Structure formats: C-alpha cells, structure tokens
Amino acid sequence: MTQSKFLSLLLLLFVFSFVSKGQSAPTNKLVSPRIRVIMDNDFSGDPDGLFALTHLVLSPSVEVRGIIGSHLNAADGFDRSKTQADNAAKKAAELLAVLKIKDQFPVIAGSNTAMLNDSTPVKSKAVDLIIKEASRTDTSLPLYILCGAGLTEIASAILTEPKIADKLTLVWIGGPEYSDLALPPPNYSSPEYNLNIDINAARAVFNHSQLKLWQIPRDGYRQAILPYSELQLKIKPQGEAGKYLAGVLETLMGRLQQYHFNLGETYILGDSPLVLLTALQSSFEADPSSSEYILKPCPLINAQGGYDYNAHGRNIRVYRRLDINLMFNDFFAKLELNK
C-alpha cells in the first residue's frame, strides 16, 4: 500500500468513527488563529460596526488583540456628546457581554477628539495598544489594524512610533470613489463620511506615512447590502446575539421614521468587509482571493478631503468588488453555530 493510500484510509476511518458515534468532527480544533487583529470603530454611531465586531470575534482564524472605541465627527447625529470614544467602548463591551465573551479582549476608548493637524498625534491608551502590539517580537502572526471609522488612533500611533509602519497592514473602510474607477452615488456627501471624521489623520496616513494600506472606498463598502428580510430570517432568530443586533438596527429604522427618512428595505453593513478581507482569506497562498482590487499610487489627501494625484505615492490596494455572498453566508452560519 502506498503512503498516500494509507493516509486516505486513516482519514476515512477517522471520519467514520465520528459518524458511527453520532458525532460531528471537532471543527473548532481544526481552525486556529493565523493573523492578529485590532479593531478600531465608532461603535456609538452607525450600528454596522457592531455587526462587524460580532462576525470578527466569532471567527477562529483571527486572534483579536484589542478593540478600540473611536470618536465620530463632532457634529455627528448618532452621538453629539463629547465622550464619543468612551461611549463607543461601552457599546462594544455591551455587545461582548451579550456574546458572553466580555473579558476575553481588551476594550479601550480612543481619543474623544480628532487630530489638531496632520503632524501632531493624540495621546491615548488605544495608541499605546497599537504601538505595543506592532512592536512584538514573540509572534510570527501578521498584524492587521481594522478601521471602520476615522484614522485618529492609527495615524497617531505611526506619528508617535514611525518604526512600526512596516509591521502591520491597515485595512480601512473609507474615502470617496476614485474618479477613474467609479462615480459617486446620488446626493453623495463630500468629504466622504469616515474620512470626514478626521481629515488630518487621513492626511497623516496617506500623505506622510509608508503604511501598507488596503482601502475599501465608498463604492466598495456600499456593496455590503443586507436586506431587511435576511435580518428577520437569518439574524434575529439566532439567540441573544441575533436579537441584539436586529434590535439596534430596527431601533435606528424606527428613529429615522420619526424624521420621515425612509431607509427602504436594505441596510449597508459597510464595516463587515473588514472581516471578509482578513478572517476569510484563502487557505493556500492566503489572501482575500475572491474579492478584486487594483494597485494605485497612494494619492494625497487635500485639506478638503479629496484626492490629489501623487505619481510617487506608494502602491496601495483599492478594493473594487467584494465577495458579499461569502461574507454574509459565513456571518449567518457563525451566528447560528453560536446560538
């Protein structure tokens, strides 16, 4: 008997032993972390960040090293307080309590204010966390910083300790469309929502750093459309977590109706691609192989929050098409398994 046939026989016997006992194979032991992540998000604002955080912490291929609650634009209608980052951290902790994993990850509030300019970092425990994690020498797992809001904390970390720039990959949901790739949607906002949270931080990252950057601009993250029918059938029935997530979104829908704003029957879960591009990378030659990107010279961000062409900019990934089916189907399955 050849070695390959012998190994195949052993595998069949292994599977048969579980089936014969009415058990399923221990898949939880077959998947282990292969990347480290820190998630940075404005959890007291748009609830899409809470959906992405749930998906992330239920993904066994990632080692979550920290969760940062970040601020919104000072005039944002979601949270007009002066403690937006503190509120965001409390909201993330609330969700983790629902998931019964409250003490497994550090949850830290970032700065409650944006950067004063593109060269002066803010100081916060969140900045310290990023620097500490990026500076580790005791692990070979690559580090990804997942930003679904402004860039205050990561920009400040790079300004504070420039040596960490080549030790991590920044995945950012934000920025307007590139005019040579896509048109903006009707009645679009300018500057783009996440970029407008802290334009100075975006300028620090784009204009002055050498960070490895994967960007999902507005035409990319707007692809993550969840129909209300799937919220009702595939999320809401899935235990306490599903009920909680459906509740925060339905509360928002009702709140907006009071102002005669009709969302229709879909909602954009624009932060969920952060999980798609990291936890759901391909098995061999790991990469987000089912989504499409192009390499572009990193543009300069001008004072108005627009792009200026920069022929000498480092190459960055700009994601154009996302595998939304993989992303949502995996999320629905993990919610059901966690029920």
From TrEMBL:
Pfam families: IU_nuc_hydro. Gene3D superfamilies: Ribonucleoside hydrolase-like. GO terms for molecular function: purine nucleosidase activity. GO terms for cellular component: cytosol. One of its GO terms (biological process) is purine nucleoside catabolic process. Residues 1-22 form the signal peptide. The keyword Protein biosynthesis does not apply. This is Nucleoside hydrolase. It comes from Mucilaginibacter rubeus. The lineage of its organism: Bacteria, Pseudomonadati, Bacteroidota, Sphingobacteriia, Sphingobacteriales.
